[in-house]
Write a structure and sequence with these properties.
Pfam family, one: p450
Radius of gyration: 26 Å
GO molecular function: heme binding; iron ion binding; monooxygenase activity; oxidoreductase activity, acting on paired donors, with incorporation or reduction of molecular oxygen
Oligomer: single chain
CATH architecture: Orthogonal Bundle
Helix content: 40-55%
Keywords: Heme, Iron, Membrane, Metal-binding, Monooxygenase, Oxidoreductase, Transmembrane, Transmembrane helix
Low-confidence stretches: 208-223
CATH class: Mainly Alpha
Strand order of the largest sheet: 1-2-7-4
Organism: Coptis chinensis
Bound molecules: protoporphyrin IX containing FE
CATH topology: Cytochrome p450
Mean pLDDT: 85
Cofactor: heme
Length: 538
Amino acid sequence: MALTEDTVRWLVKMGISIAPIFFTLIALLATVLVYCYAPYWAVRRVPGPPPIPLVGHLPLLAKYGPDVFSILAKRYGSIFRFHMGRQPLVIIADPELCKEVGIKKFKDVPNRSIPSPILASPLHRKGLFFTRDTRWSTMRNTIISLYQPSHLASQVPTMQSVMDSLTANLPNSEHEDIVFSNHSLKMATDIIGQSAFGFDFGLSKQHSLSNSMNCGEGSDDIDDEVSDFIKQHIYSTTTLKMDLSGSFSIILGLLLPIFQEPFRQILKRMPWTIDYKVYQTNLKLTRRLDEIVEKRSSNRDDRIQSKDFLSLILNARESQKTAKDLFTSDYISALAYEHLLAGSATTSFTLSTILYLVAGHPEVEKKLVKEIDDFGPHDLMPTAHDLQNKFPYIDQIIKEAMRFYTVSPLVARETSREVEIGGYVLPKGTWVWLALGVLAKDPKHFPEPHKFKPERFDPNCEEEKQRHPYANIPFGIGPRACIGMKFAIQELRLALVHLYQRYTFRHSPNMEKPLAFDYGIVLNFKHGVKLRVKKRTS
Ligand code: HEM
């Protein structure tokens, strides 16, 4: 509203000078502008589309989904700016630059940036993924021994028994749809439950859980403790959104981070808000995990015999001084929970995409089935050694499917000091994200990138020989790469042998084409993967 002459005269009469009001307003405006634009200013030289105040490029993410990064890479090159709300990200979309960030300059970029959904969740922050600097390296060095080949080999029978339960529950009819992604999530959760906690969730044995696994809210017929835990776990994970569809405090964290924590503190007390529900769920999960840790800590005799992740960390805590200081019970809970989180959604997504892709490519299915039949009779269980050496085509299929649908298309890192990357000087605290999904679809490294061709990963193929070694890095790169990679690959190989010894799969006519995705902390299916199962004769 403009100040009229009368108002000015009235203000003067009342002894109120306009100047202080005017300057206060200007100062306020300047503060807001500085707050909004300070992070942008620090990386303004890196090319990118002009950001919209506050929301940045989130509307582009909403419009194009994760494909937006390939579109921007085409326009702006292999290093560009993308604004996740107020926060600018420097996106790296070139294998050589990924090597520079992930390996050569790892000392300058050793940590992950913490996005707003995670900031609000201590349970997620205390795992390996988001711990920082020396705490991270000491934690990682202690638990890396759990991923040695001998330990992985001991997990094969456990994996196999869960897969037996899964296949016992698949229908016999070729005319019935199964939401395979639900089955594979149950399978992966059961496997990781046993290897992380030594605990059998028994989901693969239960037919009735299939729908609740997907929606996260659960259905009424599931009321026992285990199902409750799983429901909470899935709710807690699926509400971690990267776009503007999360809770109010998460949205604030993207737009005006300064207000996120105060608002979360208020909203978590209001029962009708998503923040309340997320808080309550995380509280219950944390309590449940603390109970599990407590129980296992006190049961020393059982624990010494056990080979699960939780027992092994607790044993290490007893025998090593560093581990004792480091692994307080809150960190142990977070680490064990992180295993459940990191090991279930990613692996089950990948297995579902493999079945979906193979079902649409009969020539690939034929070669796969032949490799499996050549291995031996259909009830022969492969050992860890067999899995590693006798199924080269399965490995090509896994690599190609992970390239085709990259479950974790972005990997978050943050600079710890000023560093030069790709010709740009980036100040301390810059969020540098590696765009694995863009690399995987770059025709320079993968001719005809939208075709599913496992043979492109055949070691004798020219394309494979000439490709940059870091063009396909679905498990990340360098010292901070996925710690569970070998575990996941062993599980995927075994699941494929087990399934195709018994079945082949076809697309359901009720499935959307192309597959639709949700973008949370990892990629997820919007409507699941629906398939039809055909039993094989032995
Ligand atoms: C197909 C399955 C999986 C995929 C595609 C995957 C992908 C990834 C990616 C891309 C990262 C980030 C790497 C980086 O920053 O360079 C990561 C980190 C991590 N993953 Fe996985 N992962 C999978 C399975 C698993 C499993 C089974 C576990 C646990 C048993 C696991 C535990 C972790 C942990 C703890 C980290 C953090 C490592 C650190 O910061 O030191 N992942 N994963």
